[in-house]
Amino acid sequence: MTEPDEPAVRTARRWLADVAREVGVDPTVLDPAVNDVLDLTKAVAHGPSRPAAPLTAFLVGLSLSPNSPADDIRARLMRIRDLAATWKDADDEAH
């Protein structure tokens, strides 16, 4: 989240920290990944499907171990972001 002084960003950070604690995850795990997750969801929302954006982030999260190194997390997020940027729906191409 690029503007740490914005009220919405501060609220988002507090919300995410509370959610992380509620589900038993160290809230600091988000720190290196926030911008990459936002980039991913933006690419999916503006590419393949807006409703698929949060679900794509969920799937990427499920595919990672809670102890995944930050570099692995970033690489996975960027790989799927790049897939979203180039993805073509086979159904659309058939018509």
TrEMBL record:
Name under which the protein is recorded: DUF6457 domain-containing protein
Superkingdom, taxonomy of origin: Bacteria
Species, as recorded: Corynebacterium uropygiale
Matches recorded under InterPro entries: DUF6457
Domain (DUF6457) ranges: 10-91
